Model the fold of this input.
Amino acid sequence: MRIVIILVLILVLMFLILISFDFDDVMWWAVQKQREFQNQMATAIRLLRMGEPGALAALFTAAGAYGFVHAVGPGHGKYLIGGVGFGTSIPVFRLLAVSVASSITQSLWAIVLVFGGFLIFEVSARQMTAIAENYLAPVSYLAIACVGLILVWRGLISLQRRIVSQKINEHQHEHDEHQHDHEECGCHAHGPSPTQVAELGSLRELLALIFSIAIRPCTGAIFLLVIAWQMDFKLAGAIAVIIMGLGTACLTSLVAISSIAARGIAFLSAGKTNIIHIMISASQVLAGFFVVWISIVFFRIAI
Amino acid sequence: MLIDRNVHRLHNPRNHLRRKGPVLGFVTMIFMAHTLLPVTANAHPHVFVDGGVDFVIGQQNQLEALQVTWLIDEFETLYLLSDHGFSLNSKGGLDESVRKEFIRSLSDWPDHFEGASHLSVDGTDIALNLPINLDAQILNGRLLLTFSRKLALPQTVEKQEVEVGFYDSTYYYAFFVKNEPKIVGDNQNCITNVLPFNPDTQEKVLLGALSKLGREETTGIADIGALFADRIQLRCE
Done:
């Protein structure tokens, strides 16, 4: 029953945040800013064609700014990173590394896709954009949904183990017998501890996070690379796209830090140690479901 | 022993189900909420176009054609050029021969070309032919396209409610009426009026429409661009 109450409280908190924050205004601001920075990139490209000094710097600056505001829109793994940051015990520097790595990998994948497509397969620009939007976007959303399901599963396992551990501890304390905290005894194996289950520590898991985000290249990056190929500034275009990725990494890193801070605040009020542990596992379940929900929503829109 | 019995009880599969029950209940609730609650449409445009529509009125007060103007953003201009295999010259513009070739390439309109001009007379949609007389120029880095669209059948517009929705159905392109609509022809008894999209007053209608769209089983969101459209009205005495 206590678990139900905790889960309800977390859901209510998430709902209150969602309804009180005006996401529509933020989204529209991001769309307007994207337009502004896209056109600044275009101006820089015209100056580049004319051989004007400073054109490259202008292109790189506009690309980085565009990457930041573009990441406010769909894609780039904000919800996944936020869900992982809030719902797991992942250390902050590890999550920041995931944010940066996924954005850079996304940029590199766009370069491989576009330049490789033009060079090897001679696909058209429209076909390239169609591949990214019609095939890779849904695949990415499904991959992210799978990572969300893994979060849910691990959260349930962690929750079950913490409940079992708590029950055993309470019973043992009552009878004053073998003082045995299953998380700390070390005298016999229990399998991975709930803490270990609540973290995302293995390289395989981190790579799964990175690739589920990176598999869908940014549409802005694709357009820029198409223009770069045709207008003969391929190297500068590739560098601009990587800088664009650093811009998106700035935004997703903010999400990472905010979600971990929110996790800390949410659990600060819980006085009893065993309540915190159970809340951590419960929030992992909820965060996982949130990630699955959002990614399935986007998947439905994308197909 | 008491501890062993309790451990056994806790590890009994039926107890597992009882403990997971509330959490599984939440699982079911969340999935049901996802399927039943409206999906917020994730529609936001990628390309921005300013422009407008002029009305060509011929004899007997019949609307014969629309003259459409599109001023396309700089970035999309470069993308369109690249897509058609063209590039800017060293002055940041287009050579005349390239410009003419570009016009020829653009004139290969697809059969389902929508053209962001949605004409209605007294609420009835009116069919438009594919564009003719296309011209293209680069102005300060932006592609300026002008073309005509003849009505499949000229329409009498005297005392009729004529309206043009200036939008792309998918809302991938966002069109804005920036040019004052003109009347081309001899008719002096017509006036035009621009109704820009107003998110504040239309928000409730939008939310209702978006929530309805969210429950549709078909893929794609039907005519979402219409919800955000600038509109031009024509009234003739």
In short: Chain A has a mean pLDDT of 78.
